[in-house]
């Protein structure tokens, strides 16, 4: 296990360097000049040139990347072109909102997805199976922005039961939890549908196994068969889906944060892209990529605890 962790950390280091290079080059070769955006419509060519020199954009792009990479290795993600705010501080301020939203969405997805998948597998070819399968297909098909808008219209505007997001209160307070409900449901629905379908497929495979039939033949209670014998072995592929979806949720909160006016990393990234704020975009993408790799490493470690037969030697 230690060898796995060391190996993954080494791979993560080189992977993040590659990602930083791709993002850096993509931003610099994309249309739009940040110096002109900063200067505004009244800026002269001399003003734009001076801005470009002050930002270091007059240097060859590979020299710019070298300077940026050296800063990243020292823990410095640079400063925003638009606000001159430290990228580290900007992300640190907004990341808790994104993380809380992703965790709440994942909790919603796991509860709904695992429960629906298990029920669907145990009641195969019944109306419950058809209902959950149809619901999973609908969950995957419904766009987040549409679902979020409908939830706001029903529960925040018409019924006035819940606030329409924003996450202004601490998440551990009652008001903070209320603010998380609608965004979490909006973001977690698609993941819940994927988890439900994977749980159903995995449970159907395990339920038909010889050791499950043997347990039932010995008179083991059905609850013990389902939750001890079936669930533990069926969870391996489900955990893979959960881990990957959590990584996607961390990077996929952009639309949900826009709909619910949440001041998170996703919304920060959208504004930075629109303004060609290179350091802010690069820092945000690097953070999301790092978290995605870390989550996948945690998933691999969890495998070994769930199924001792899995070895990384």
Automatic annotation (TrEMBL):
Cite the CDD domains for this sequence. Answer: TM_PBP2
Transport: present as a keyword of the record?
yes
Recorded GO cellular component terms are: plasma membrane
Q: What is this protein called?
A: Peptide/nickel transport system permease protein
Is Transmembrane found in the keyword set? Answer: yes
This protein's UniProt keywords: Cell membrane, Membrane, Transmembrane, Transmembrane helix, Transport
Q: Which organism is it from?
A: Piscibacillus halophilus
The record's similarity note reads: Belongs to the binding-protein-dependent transport system permease family.
Where in the cell does this protein reside? Answer: Cell membrane
